[in-house]
From TrEMBL:
Protein name: Coiled-coil domain containing 146
UniProt keyword annotations, A-Z: Coiled coil
Superkingdom of origin organism: Eukaryota
Biological source species: Sarcophilus harrisii
Renumbered residue ranges of the record's region Disordered: 260-292
Cellular-component GO terms for this entry: cytoskeleton
Length: 292
């Protein structure tokens, strides 16, 4: 038990010793820092002395300026020119000033009255202008409508004039053509009366008409032939074909049976195809005689 207490006290003493060592180290650090700051302290002391001297000089200067400011004598005082008026002169001057003031007030009242009259007139004119603005707006709208109608009418007139000019040109062309036809007709009548043949142009036109009629007849005949061919090529089932029809039935030759057509079935007779154009390159075979 005593040993245990001694260990505890020893541990406490060690802790105290460690704490004291830390304090000693802290004091040594502070001493080291203060020693480093010692030259700075000297310079700061010198700066403080200089600043104190400057401060004393500034205070002396301030005191001197305050004394000069308070003292009314000297250069600060400035005497005014002129003379002081007597009471009578002052009263007469006051009367004059009051008279001038009354005149100014009278003029001011006149100007205010004129201003009121002008304001009334301007109000009337403003109301009139407002009403005139509405009237002018209506007139402007009507003018715009009339101008639009005038423009539409001018466009229509221009279109009619253009159409009229076209019709006039067409009428001139027709009149010219009519004159030419009349001249041609008179010349034809004169040639017929004289017993002369008609002109080549009429003959060419007549031949052209005959040729057109022949072509029309040929076209009608070709159309009829095509219709006949279509009817001929149209099968009973409704299928159109141009192939050559082949027999699909035969009549038996037996006497015991009736002569009724029978279908070929799966084995219809073979029909060879016609030789093509390539057959001209093939020689015909020579038939050799058969020796027995």
């Amino acid at each position: 038990m005593m040993k245990r207490n001694g260990d505890i006290e020893l541990h406490i003493l060690e802790e105290k010793l460690r704490f004291l060592k830390l304090k000693i180290a802290e004091r040594q650090r502070k001493i080291y820092v203060y020693r480093k700051m010692l030259p700075l302290k000297r310079t700061l002391d010198m700066e403080i002395a200089v600043l104190q001297i400057q401060f004393s000089q500034c205070t002396d200067r301030i005191n001197l300026l305050e004394k000069k400011f308070v003292d009314p004598t000297g250069d600060r005082a400035r005497l005014l020119n002129g003379k002081d008026l007597t009471p009578k002169e002052m009263l007469s001057k006051i009367d004059k000033l009051e008279f001038h003031l009354a005149e100014k007030e009278e003029k001011l009242l006149e100007k205010e009255f004129l201003f009121e009259q002008v304001a009334r007139l301007t109000d009337r004119l403003r109301t009139r202008t407002e009403t005139c603005k509405q009237d002018t707006l209506l007139l402007a709208k009507k003018m715009n409508e009339y101008q639009k109608k005038i423009k539409d009418c001018t466009h229509k007139m221009m279109a009619l004039v253009a159409e009229l000019s076209m019709q006039q040109a067409l009428s001139l062309e027709l009149q010219k053509e009519m004159r030419d036809k009349q001249e041609f007709l008179t010349s034809c009548i004169e040639r017929i009366e004289q017993g002369l043949p008609l002109s080549k142009e009429i003959e060419e036109d007549w031949l052209k008409v005959l040729r057109d009629e022949d072509m029309h007849h040929l076209a009608v005949a070709e159309r009829a032939m095509l219709q006949l061919e279509e009817k001929h090529n149209l099968m009973a089932s409704g299928v159109y074909t141009t192939a050559i029809q082949r027999p699909n039935a035969y009549i038996p030759d037996a006497e015991a049976t009736l002569p009724l057509p029978r279908p070929y079935g799966r084995a219809p007779p073979f029909k060879p195809t016609e030789p093509g154009s390539s057959m001209r390159h093939i020689k015909k075979p020579t038939i050799k005689p058969i020796e027995i």
